[in-house]
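Bug #77: duplicate submission created two jobs. Keeping one. Sequence:
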Amino acid sequence: MERTWATNTKNGMGYRSSAATSRRHTSIPCSPAALISECRSTTAAARGLLEKKWGKEKMRGNTASKGENLGEIKIKDPIKGRTKVVETLSSYGNGDIFLILVTAKWNHESQPDYKSNFYHNCNWIEIYEYFDYYLQLWLRFFFFLVLQKFHRDLPPTPVFAFGLSKDTATIPGPTIEALHGIQTYITWRNYLPSKHILPWDPTIPTAIPSTKKGIPTVVHLHGGIDEPESDGLSTSWFTAKFKERGPTWSKKKYHYHNFQHPGTLWYHDHAMGLTRVNILAGLLGAYIIRDPKVEAPLRLPYDEEVDRPLVVFDRSFCADGSIFMNSTGNNPSIHPQWQPEYFGDAIIVNGKAWPHMVVRRRKYRFRIINASNARFFKFYFASGLGFIHLASDSAYNARSVMVNDILLAPSEIADVIIDFSESNSDSDILANNASYPYPSGDPVNEANSKVMKFIIKSHHELDTSKIPKQLIRYPSPNLSSVSLTRYIAMYEYTSEIGEPIHLYINGKSYEEPVTETPKVGATEIWNVINLTEDNHPLHIHLGLFVALDQTELVNADEFKECMLKNNDAIKCQVDKYARGKKIDVPAHEKGWKNVYKMMPGYVTRIIVRFSYIHSNESYRFDATAEPGYVYHCHILDHEDNVMMRPLKFIK
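Kept job's structure:
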């Protein structure tokens, strides 16, 4: 397929799940002004209802009996003028009043009933403080088999996609935006067919229904600080209509607290042994937590047009438009299908291959998510235009940092500003020059070296957004508070023909008993020893960490031989070997992260914190509950086979 820039559409990116629609989580083509008008009508009615029931002076301290319906509010449909009844206020006891706007349902034309959400355009912060109650957002998300057009020269592609209805499901799925402190409840519903659209390998540890029918799925909110029951553990999978469920499945409705620091997250499939194929098929999307009190004073670019995610990944396609995945493994006598890495020829951004975007000559904020299975990206502009780096993964940097290029491993996130007013051209190309596999694989080619094109309008305009030097400073990691030091070793095992057959952490498969049992609230040092030839992006569920340094192993073959025999870094005298070249952590990656690149032949020292970084408060859930958490390599083909270990917290 020849690389051409995808046709631009009115939403600016050529994909349906743009910020213009998905931020409101609604498929109704209504204007932001209409939604804001409805929000104001609803909040005014809610205020009036409570004042009438309790009086202004009594509202803050009032309690209501459990289940008491506090009233109904009628407002007008901003699209067709119909009257809508909102079950607005009800109590769940203990004096906590919950405002639930999303129980109301629209029913326009052929669209099915669904739970609408208008909170994004409402001034909920003012109301939250005024009434002193909690806000909740309830959503239902579905997984569908749909057709998506990735490129003008390709037939539509069968994919698995998230959406509020089959008609609106896309890759990536809708961008979910939450406000700090407003809890989100999502019921993830599986409407996938009985058979997969991609080849999968039953010889690796895999979620397989007893009936051999149905596609197991489970959703993980990557970067979320939430209860273990809602973390999307690989063995908590379920098939269509919850007919079959994994051994650790416990609930349909997931609870995301959104009490953590503001930042960019993403949600994706996490089913045991199927993560690589389910994400490759399309089960992924962006999730943003905003905290206006903290972020508004920064005056960064903010509205639907100039602040948006860029979800980037690679795919290969067959002539009929279907996704191509090699159905023969590199060790077919051992694993008939499993390959150590998947790489595609086409670069996809927000659901389009090599798209273009028309931009104004001003600052834009892009939250770049590398959602590839195994491909690293080293982003740069052909013209030399730079990036102002704001945040790594889910957390802001303490200071903004200007960089000329950005290396992103799979699942890493770079939150950046690009100032197109600095460009001397009418267009620019976002390019990539990361070898694959990274770092010692093939160089990029004409197809996968290009990411997307920006067409820059000629008119200069007044831009009131800012790029502050100081961003959000969280407490620095405190070495004196470290309670334990761990050694985490990464291994790759090969067959007689020298091809990988599986990858382990600490020489153990996932099913072996848990060995990492941190205390809730603890701070630990993890020395991650990469004994393979690949760079492995390590992701720790629930934990946040700061990379301290990376030290090269000398006489690495000798040390590796000892480790393969004893699997004990201390017994093998790791300090004797970890005394080579030191690599400093780049300035823009010195903050709190949930993924970091573990260089091959190096020991990477990270300080891990199992608590909030923005607050001294305890978790708002029991992190010691079943089924626990995991940590793993985020190269999905490695994670599936089976570079992943359980993580269980103790009090």
